[in-house]
Write the structure tokens for this entry.
Amino acid sequence: MALPVVYRRKVGRDLAGGYAWYNGQRDGLGEEFLGEVNATFDAVERFPEIFARVHGEVRRAVISRFPFAVFYRIEARRVVVLTVLHTARDPKLWPESRRTAR
């Protein structure tokens, strides 16, 4: 069941931070990070229900090669990407399941 995907504004900041950190480690690694994130976004869009629920209705899709995950929620007509977090982050920072996207 492919659904359109919308992204909270926070996702852009999450990605910019990850990109900058990885590019600081090795030139071009930030681009590789974004490529893996985009592949995960594609999987979430095409198969949103295959990833596990981790907190209420919030699901987590782990990003290949990098210790990050995409947190999202499936709504009636769309998928809402809530945040992209490093997997070592405190689970208390994981997004709450909310009814509307910002």
